[in-house]
Amino acid sequence: MILRMRLMACVWMFLLLGTSAHAVITLDGDFDHGSLDEANSSVAGNLVLLAGRDNFNPGQWKWLYFSADGVNGLQPTFRIGDNFNTGGSSLNDHEMVYSYDQENWFFFDNNVRSSGAGTFTFSNNTVFTQDRVWVAYGLPYPAARTVSHTAELVSSPWVSPTASGNSSLVIGQSPGGIDDLGRTIAPQDMYGYKISDPTGAAVKKKIALIGGVHSNETLGNYTLEGLVDFLVSDDFEAALLRKYADFYVYPLANPDGRRAGYNRSTVQRVNEDPNRHWVPPNYDGLDDIEVVGDALIADTGADVDYLLDFHSTVNDTFANHHGLLLPAYQSDPMWLNFKSLEPNVITGGASLIDDTGAKFGRDHLNAEFSATFETRFLPGENIDRFLSMGRNFGLAFKQTFVVSLDLNFDGQLNSLDWNLFLAGSETDLSTLSPIDAYSAGDLNGDGFNDLFDFGIFKTEYIQVHGLSGFEALFKQVPEPNSIFFTSFVLGSLLLLRIPRRSHPI
Ligand SMILES: [Zn+2]
Q1: According to the per-residue pLDDT averaged within each range, which of 2-6, 155-159, 201-205 is highest?
Q2: What b-and-e string marks burial along 420-435, b requiring 16 or more CB atoms within 10 Å of the CB?
Q3: How far is the CA of 305 from the centre of ligand 1 (A)?
Q4: Is residue 314 very low, low, confident or very high in pLDDT (cuts 50, 70, 90)?
Q5: Is the Cβ–Cβ distance between 153 and 193 less than 8 Å?
Q6: pLDDT tens across 330-380, in order?
Q7: C-alpha of residue 265 to centroid of ligand 1, in Å
Q8: Beta partners for residue 114, in sequence order
C-alpha cells in the first residue's frame, strides 16, 4: 500500500513537473534585429509582462521584437507599458504581429491600449500551435534579409557592381561596436549595386535608392525590396524601364543598428540620428553613412535625376504613407504617376534644412527630385502590401520615362522608330524576348508584327505628330525593302480605314 502511494506520488510529481516544464514561457530578444529588455520582463503563468527597450530614448520603448518559447497550446496575454517613444497615443489602433518562422507574419487578434492603466495588451483568440513564436511591434526586416536578398541579385543579368563595389556587391564595411546591452556587434558588409540594361538608351536617367538609414524602419526596406524585385524582373514593363533608366541601390545604410535591434541610431553613434549627418567628406564621423554617401557620389558621378530614401514612421501627423517633398517636387511627373497608382499616399512637405539623405541627394548628387518616403505600420497591411507599393514606384518611373512606340529607345518617337517597325513588319517574332519583339514592332505582344501592330503604330503616331507627320514617314522611306513591303503598307492603309481597336501597351 505504501509502495503504491509512493508510486502514485511519483506519477503526480512527474506530471506536475512535466506540465510545469512545458508551461514556462521563456523570452529571448538576443538575435538579429531582436529588441527586448529581458531583465525587466517577466512571465506569470499565461501573462507575459514585457519591458521595452529604446537605445535612443532611454526609459521609453520603440522597436520590440522577441521570441517566446514554450507557448504551444497556450493562449498567453502579452502586456507592455505605453511609454512608447512617440507617446502612448501612437499605440492607439496599433496591432502587434507574430510569426512561427520569421517570414510569414500575422496580426494579433486583440490589441488594447489603456491610457488609464498605461498599458498596451495583446493576445489571440486561439492557442499557439507551435512551441516557439516570434512577436514584434511591426513587420521585422533583419539585417540578414538584406544579405540574402542581395546575394540573390548577384546572378541577375541586370545587376552589376557599382564603381565602389566588388563582385559580391559589397561597397564597404560598417564600423560595428558595442551596443547599449554591452554586446559586440561585428562589422558587417554593406551593399550597393546598379540595375541596368546596358543595351538601353545612350543617355539614361539615373535614380538613387537608399534604405535602412533608421534601424527600426523596416517597412522602408520592404518597399525598396519590392521596387528592386520589379526592376530585375522579367516583367515587360520592367524591361522597358531598364532601357531608359539605371538604378543605384543601397539597401541597408545602417546594418549595425538593424542587427542590434536599435531604434533609429547606429551602434557607432548611439546618441545621433544618422539621418542628420549626410555631410561629406566626414559625415560627422558616422562611418555607415560615409560608406553609402561616398559610394553614391563615386558611383553616380555625383549626378542623379532622382533620389528616394525609404523610411517608415509612427508619426501621426499623416494618417497614411507619405512622401516628404519640397514644394518644387510635388508636381513631379513620377510622383504624380505614383500617386495615381497609390491614391491613399499623402504628399507631405519638406524644407531640406536638416542634413538628411534627401538633402544630400539635392545638394551633393544634384538630383532634380530628392525625397524621403515614409511608410506607416498600419493594421492589416502586411509584407505583400509594401512589396507591391515598391512595384508601383517602378511602374511610376516606367510611366514617366518610357516614350510610347520609341522602338530604338532613344527617348523620341520619330522616323527611326518607323524604320525599325518596317524592318520587322510581317514577321513572326515569337521566339524573341518580349522587349526585343517590341523593338521589332510587336506592339500588342502577340508575337507578330502584323496589321494590328500597324494600326497601333499609325494611331499613336498620328496622336503625337498628326496625320501629316505620319504621311511624311512614307516620303522619307529611302528604299522599301521589297515590292511586297510597299503593298503591305498600302494595303494596311486601306484596311485601316475600318476602325480597329488598338492595344497600346
Ligand atoms: Zn526614418
Answers
A1: 155-159
A2: bbbebbbbebeebebb
A3: 22
A4: confident
A5: yes
A6: 999 999 999 999 999 999 999 999 999 999 999 999 999 999 999 999 999
A7: 10
A8: 119
Residue 236 to residue 255: CA distance in whole angstroms: 33
Whether the predicted pLDDT of 390 surpasses 50: yes
Q: Which residue has the cell 485601316?
A: 496
CB burial readout 354-367, b (16+ within 10 A) else e: ebbbbbbbbebbbb
The span from the CA of 278 to the CA of 365, in Å, is 12
Strand runs (DSSP E) across 231-335, as ranges? 245-250, 306-313, 322-325
Rounded to the nearest 10 degrees, what angle do helices 143-153 and 218-231 cross at? 10
Coil, helix or strand for 331?
coil
Q: What is the mean pLDDT of residues 51-69?
A: 95
For residues 235-261, give the mean pLDDT: 98
Q: In the beta sheet, which residues pair with residue 313?
A: 376
In the reported structure, the alpha carbon of residue 357 is separated from the centroid of ligand 1 by a whole-number distance in angstroms of 10
Q: What separation in Å is there between the alpha carbon of 376 and the centre of ligand 1? A: 11
For the chain, what percentages of helix, strand and coil (3-state, to nearest 5) are there?
Answer: 35, 20, 45
Q: How far is the CA of 299 from the centre of ligand 1 (A)?
A: 24
Contact 225, 149 (CB under 8 A): yes
Domains in the chain (CATH in brackets) are: 19-136 (2.60.40.3120), 143-401 (3.40.630.10), 415-495 (no CATH)
- What integer is the mean pLDDT of 36-64? 95
Task: Assess whether pLDDT exceeds 70 at residue 492.
Answer: no
